[in-house]
Amino acid sequence: MTLNEFKKLAQERSVTLELFWRFGKTEFDPWLRGPRRILAVRSYGFDLELPTTEGLRDPTQKTSALRVEYASLFDLSGDILSIYKSGSRPATEDEQEALDGWDAKVAQDPDVTVWAQKNYFRTFVSAKKKPDGRRRGYEYLIKDRRGEIDPETGRELIFDRSFRGDLALQYRVIT
């Protein structure tokens, strides 16, 4: 079942989630324990009811947010709902070309400025792609670069918010 199908289901009838795994732990704070009903479906995910406010800073709080910003980070298999953290993926050929070009430029002149780096990635055009008039900046590579190499492809890993990384949460779905 996809994220959109699950959202539609949660709007049509009462769906309850019970957290049983969170970042490798099975013991939780009191407000996370037990079955929790989905009270609202939002663009960013779901609002879940709080069974208790014990231990919360704001005792008037009635809901908590279950954020699922990308469908690729959502997986529903049977009655187990899994939510994943964003992860790193191997750079595309164009991205790797931009990264290699920047590394060569830094090797020639180690005193290049941050603004030179921004300008390089903003205006970089891949040799493999013909320019089509649309802006194709690679500025995101400045902050999303991880400095690790994928052993399978030999390409650098790039952080991608929509790429499935490690498992974060698992819920049991009760309909």
Indicate the mean pLDDT: 89
* Structural class by sheet pairing and helices: alpha+beta
Shape: elongated
Helix content: 10-25%
Runs in which pLDDT lies below 50 for 5 or more consecutive residues are none
- Secondary structure tally: strands: 8
Describe this structure in words.
By secondary structure, the protein is α+β, with helices and mostly antiparallel strands. Helix content is 23%, strand content 37%. Strands 1, 2, 3, 4, 5, 6, 7 and 8 form an eight-stranded antiparallel β-sheet that branches. The protein is elongated, with a radius of gyration of 22 Å. The mean pLDDT is 89.
Quick summary of this structure?
The chain is of the alpha+beta class and 175 residues long.
Please give a handful of descriptors for the protein shown.
single chain, 175 residues, alpha+beta, eight-stranded antiparallel beta sheet, 8 strands, 23% helix
Q: What's the helix and strand layout?
A:
Blueprint: H1 3-12, E1 16-22, E2 35-42, E3 45-49, E4 63-67, E5 74-77, E6 80-90, H2 93-108, H3 114-123, H4 140-144, E7 145-149, E8 156-174
Antiparallel strand pairs: 1-2, 1-8, 2-3, 3-4, 5-6, 6-8, 7-8
